[in-house]
Design brief:
By secondary structure, the chain is α/β, with parallel strands linked by helices. Helix content is about 25%, strand content about 20%. Helix 2 links the parallel strand 3 and strand 4. The longest helix is centred in the N-terminal third of the chain and has 18 residues. It is globular and about 50 Å long.
Length: about 270
């Protein structure tokens, strides 16, 4: 019998979570409220897929066929300005840095809209950059306006919590496997979610507008963690980090506030 996924609802009266509360747990709540309640130095790895603050044009995008483009217009991607976005970024990064074990690493993904700002804030906070990894999408969303290059990449920043950190995990043989046994290069060619992997509602709409492919998380997890490690995803979306962690004998801690995403997380984990 498959184990039922228990989602723990964060409450204002909850002041802190003990380490025993965290392994293979989904916490329903605002990450800026939940993160301060987590214990120091408990995570072996962190994967963050934050809002990108895309600042898309306030007009409908139309394909050549006449159909609408299903763009990212979710409320969670809306910020008043860069100052508000930067403050949000600094708040969660400070907490994540505290939560990371001394040898833990962090991955943050983004596009040209936000990743340079995120990187600057990370360096200002003392994170030590190990790599940037380029996710090259083999099936990118076309640029329907035709006024610039089609954006076919996203960037993952991989870093230590500070320059003094030692003995972090890196499996170079796994990295080579991602490039047919050759050099473990920092360019990963992976298609966007499609077909059965893309979660959809009964109406056929995407459950999450920026759902990440499992192969992307598989590479992150297999290259930078060990079996039994605890991986924190503070903005879990539909829970891909937890799915891949569970499949590869790692533990997960997911934080998410959107009820639709939480429902998807529970259903996906229940199937594993």
């Amino acid at each position: 019998m498959k184990k039922t996924t228990t989602i723990l609802t964060d409450l204002p009266e909850t002041k802190h979570y003990s380490l025993s509360d965290l392994s293979d747990r989904v916490i329903a709540g605002d990450t800026l409220n939940v993160l301060p309640k987590l214990p120091d130095e408990c995570a072996d790895c962190v994967f963050v897929d934050p809002p990108y603050f895309l600042q898309l044009p306030k007009k409908k995008l139309i394909r050549w066929s006449g159909s609408d483009v299903d763009a990212v217009d979710d409320h969670w991607d809306a910020f008043a300005d860069f100052a508000e976005y930067d403050l949000f970024t600094e708040k969660y990064l400070r907490e994540v840095q505290r939560i990371m074990k001394p040898s833990a690493t962090i991955w943050v993904i983004g596009t040209y809209h936000n990743i340079h700002r995120v990187g600057r804030i990370m360096q200002d906070l003392g994170f030590w950059m190990l790599n940037d990894v380029i996710w090259y999408k083999s099936n990118p969303m076309p640029n329907f306006l035709g006024v610039r290059f089609t954006n076919a990449t996203e960037t993952l920043l991989w870093a230590l919590k500070d320059k003094k950190a030692k003995k972090y995990t890196f499996h170079k043989d796994k990295a080579k496997e991602f490039n047919e046994g050759k050099l473990g290069i920092n360019v990963w060619k992976i298609p966007l979610c499609s077909g059965n992997e893309r979660l959809r509602t009964e109406n056929g709409d995407k459950v999450h507008s920026t759902q990440k492919p499992q192969e992307l998380l598989r590479r992150v997890i297999l290259s930078s963690t060990n079996p039994g490690d605890l991986i924190l995803d503070p903005m879990a979306g539909t829970g891909t980090t937890g799915i891949v962690a569970k499949e590869n004998d790692r533990h997960y801690l997911l934080i998410e506030r959107n009820p639709d995403y939480l429902k998807a997380i529970a259903e996906r984990l229940q199937q594993k």
